[in-house]
Amino acid sequence: MFQIKPIHQKIFKNARPYLRTRKNLIHTRIALRYAFKLLESEQGDEDIVIPAILLHDVGWNTIPEKLQLTAFGPNLSNLRLTKAHESEGARIAETILTQQGYSSEKIKKIRQIIRGHDTRKKAISGDDRIVKDADKLWRYSRKGVAIDLERFNMQPSSYLDYLEKVIAQWFLTKTAREIAQKEIKKRKTEYRISSICQ
């Protein structure tokens, strides 16, 4: 079981009001668990990775809920809003981190990660790699799959096949690819779907 530092608990407490949209409270908690798992095997700075994962989606709070589904997922049609949630998230993160006395050097690194966590394809650091992977791993969790099936109105077989096919393309760390493979097998067992990679 991971231990979250008191300062990170305070950061999460301050982030919570911004995460009450798009199921982001649930998403952030699950992504946090994956971030800790990745930090066990991958090189990363916990004082960068954990605040970045806690704050990466606070910017969705500035996007009207009726438009959010156009800015992520399989029906993405408004990349401008995707980028807006990143830039607004970086701004909000800076305010929260400054209030907690985080150093300007660490705030700069966290802001850079948040500003491209969805739209930037290549990682700018090992910490960014971990945040990107933890963020995406949520989609493979039991709760993540259930939420996405409902909000995207998809059938389990097609959605899980899609998630399985993009593992090599999406994940930047060996550990995340291994976790995603294990999780997709569990989800396919739960939904009684045979794996395309068997």
Task: Summarize the helices and strands and which ones pair or pack.
Elements: H1 6-15, H2 24-41, H3 46-55, H4 65-68, H5 79-99, H6 104-114, H7 126-137, H8 142-152, H9 156-165, H10 167-170, H11 174-190
Question: Approximately what portion of the residues adopt beta-strand conformation?
Answer: under 5%
At the fourth level of CATH, the homologous superfamily is Hypothetical protein af1432
The amount of helix comes to: 55-70%
The CATH class, by name, is Mainly Alpha
CATH architecture: Orthogonal Bundle
Number of domains: 1
CATH fold naming: Hypothetical protein af1432
Uncertain regions spanning at least 5 consecutive residues: none
- Assembly annotation: single chain
What features would you describe in this structure?
The chain has 198 residues and is mainly α. The chain has one domain (6-190): Hypothetical protein af1432 (Orthogonal Bundle), CATH 1.10.3210. It is built from eleven helices and no strands. It has helices spanning 6-15, 24-41, 46-55, 65-68, 79-99, 104-114, 126-137, 142-152, 156-165, 167-170, 174-190. The longest helix is centred in the middle third of the chain and has 21 residues, at 79-99. It starts with 5 loop residues before the first helix and ends in an 8-residue tail after the last helix. The model has no long low-confidence stretch (mean pLDDT 94).
